[in-house]
Hints:
By secondary structure, the protein is an alpha+beta fold. It has two domains: 1-60, no CATH class; 94-172, CATH 2.40.50.100. Helix content is 21%, strand content 28%. The chain has helices at 3-14, 35-42, 74-82, 87-93; strands at 20-25, 28-33, 97-100, 105-108, 124-125, 130-136, 139-144, 149-154, 161-162, 167-172. A hairpin with a 2-residue loop joins strand 1 (20-25) and strand 2 (28-33).
Amino acid sequence: MNFKEIQDLIKLINKTNLSEFKMKDGEFELTILTDEYHKSKVNPTTQQVISVPAAIPPTYVPPVSGVSDAPPAAIPQAEEASAPAPASAKEDSNNYVEIKSPIVGTFYRSPSPEKPPYIKVGDRIEAGSVVCIVEAMKLFNEIESEIGGTIVKVLIEDSSPVEYDQPLFLVDPNG
C-alpha cells in the first residue's frame, strides 16, 4: 500500500463514524484510531478490549487538542486574556491558509538533525514545495505544500507528535 492510498483511506475513514480500523495484508498491518475511539476511552462507562499481536508493540499518540471539561466559550477567553492581540492581527490571520498533516506521525522540520529546516518563517514557497517530514511507522514522508505563499508561522515544535489534518504551518497566499 503506497502513501497516497493510505491518505485516501484515512480521508474515507474520517468521513464515517468508525472508531477503529484494522487492516492486514501479508506482513503489512495498519491500525487507524479515530477521535471517536479516543472519546470512548475518556468515557469511564465504556469498556473495550483490544488485542494486539505481541510482535508489534502498540504506539499511542495522544491527541494534541486534548479534552477539556470547560465550555468552548471559556477557552478563547482564556487565550485572549493571556495574549491580547490587536484587532488588525486577528483579521489578518483570517487570510492565512493552513498546511495540514495528511497523516498521523512525528513532525520534523528538517531531513536530519544536522541539516537546516526545509522552510522558516518568512520563506516563500510554491505549490509542491517540501515543507517538512512526518514519520509514520518508521517511514519518513515528505509533506508538500498544496499552495504557494509566504510562511507566516510554524504551529508545531520539531519532533512533536501530530494528528491527521492537524495544522502545521500558516501561509499567507498573498505574501
